[in-house]
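Morning!

As promised:
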Amino acid sequence: MKQDPALLNVHDLQVRFHTPEGTIYAVNGISFHIAEGEAVAVVGESGSGKSVCMMSLLGLIPIPPGEIVSGTAVFLERDLLKLPEKELELVRGRDIGMIFQDPMTSLNPVLTLGRQLTEALVRHFNLTAEEARNRAIELLQLVGIPDAASRLGNYPHQFSGGMRQRVMIAMMLACNPKLLIADEPTTALDVTIQAQIVELVQEIRAKLRMSLIWITHDLGVVAGLADRVLVMYGGTIVEEADVESLYERPQHPYTLALLAALPRVHQRRQSRLKAIPGAPPHLILELTGCPFAPRCEFVRDRCWRERPLLQPVSPTQKTACFVNPHTGEERA
Amino acid sequence: MTRYVIRRLLQSIPLLFVVSLILFVLLNNIGDPLTMMGGRNPTRPEDRERLARQLGLDQPILMQYVYWLVGNDWTMIDVDGDGEPETPGRRKGVLRGDFGISILTRGKPALDIIWERIPNTLLLMIPAQIVILVLGLGVGIYSALRQYSWVDNAVTTLSFVGFSMPIFLIALLSIYLFSVLFQRWGLPYLPANGMFDPQVGKTAAQIAKHMILPIFAIAFIDVARYSRYVRSAMLEVMSQDYIRTAKAKGLRRVTIIMVHALRNASLPIITLVGLDLPFLLAGAVVTERIFAWPGMGRLFLDHLERSDGAVVMGIVILLAVAVILSQILTDIVYAVFDPRIRYD
Ligand SMILES: Nc1ncnc2c1ncn2[C@@H]1O[C@H](COP(=O)(O)OP(=O)(O)O)[C@@H](O)[C@H]1O
Ligand SMILES: [Mg+2]
């Protein structure tokens, strides 16, 4: 693994929600880092804690019911989780941008595009209205919205879903953030539009040299996008690897199952997609063992009692599993 | 938009006809204006018949409606009771601005009587509505942002009290406290009767002083109602995705609340205000009566009790028009605030 200086270093992040139905253990001790200019994909079924993990870094989860139980998240030498709200505001949108899943609801319906594009610039850089307007036009052109100048007065409902997601990206790029977090930005879009958005983000990243965290539940789109992949399950990271290593030699039974569930274009015979048996965990109980144990075909006794920690198995790969799924043997 | 407004106005014309006909028939049945006309003595039967003929009350109800609507100056009426119409009618009808004459005031045009009350009514109701809006918005937004804080809980409790108290109780309690008890305790106390003290005269200071208690009584329940409404509208909006987006941009909390959230939360509030707007003209029936404020509400009650049809009809028609106009106004304001709405 490359040892670039980390831009963001998250350690032992734990997030819970105290709801009337009980405590939800959404994120259970997550550690990861991202280097400058690096692209990391976070993959996992929905409910595995991907969004909560990223949003809690930016102070975007509602507290209460949410609670950040422990952890540090060092970004440019400051711990985001300990920053006072006022200072965190200055990180949000300026140093770290975040794009959300549903472009239909993520833009304010009663404010013009111009207003929504320029307000971060005015807030963070004190641009004049004129300067901000010019920058907004530039941004819309960057994300491929034709006729940008004349569209600043338009409202979100005058755009299609794909176009709105482009606008959303433009908004979050406004201040040239060092890190862009994209939370399933294509999930709500048509397949063809999805591909366009992926391509757009690729292009922009190459142009602006920023780091990227791309959250998805679809291992299929990861290949072209990310340098490294974090696989999440039940609020934990179960595997972390280079894209090539992950595809070639997945080390966690859950990753294996995810890959088996992918449709493959190059497969000779139409083999049936393998769905993962069982249901994703409810997160309502505190983890004692491995969160994947109830659905794992390699499960051992100790998997129920003891939580496997993320351990390196090769220079490019870490996994949190007692068993080597390729041999069926317990790891040393 | 202009075409939409014109269409709405045209559509409201047949509606007004139907509404006025129904109200006319209903009001015709509420009492007998003639019994009241003799003052303290009961009206004599001969006078009764003559008066009925003069006022057109001998006619079938539909004919009375026609006279009310278009007047009777195009035809002859039978005043002497010989079955032969001989006197030309003199009424012009509502369509030509003649709402008839008030029986109670012996011949004063109903419209004049109503007109005279409008300034008094608005003088009381507009400040009351402003108080309601400002406090309702302030309290509602505050308790939404501090959900389940002690302030929010206190406001919730207080607004339940406000909801469940009849307005006359609030009015009477406020008189008891601020007029009676304050006076007894030697504190500066508030007047509880009329618009000004006749011994001082109708000065601005007098009127302002006399407005305080009625406005308090009118606003009390509505501040509770509005603040609950604003609170739930704000809570709804604050949980929307676009608020999260605004936060993710690093905007200040006050910008997020006052611009991103309030612009959206104002949409349901506009509807509420639009529904209340026509009742600014209607005045506050109970409050005006208790505080002896010479407004529209008291006018309505006084003339309804004596079956003075022309004035009562005039007031309800005025209100019907006000309801229609404020609905159209609400639609226009709504379209200004919500770009998704287009009327074409
Ligand atoms: N505001 C909240 N209140 C209560 N529970 C929440 C809240 N937000 C998320 N959760 C819970 O946290 C868990 C993780 O959710 P999330 O991070 O959104 O999953 P993912 O993004 O991987 O689909 C889920 O069980 C979800 O129900
Ligand atoms: Mg999510």
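The beta strands of chain B are 76-77, 87-88, 101-102, 108-109.

Hope this helps with the figure draft.
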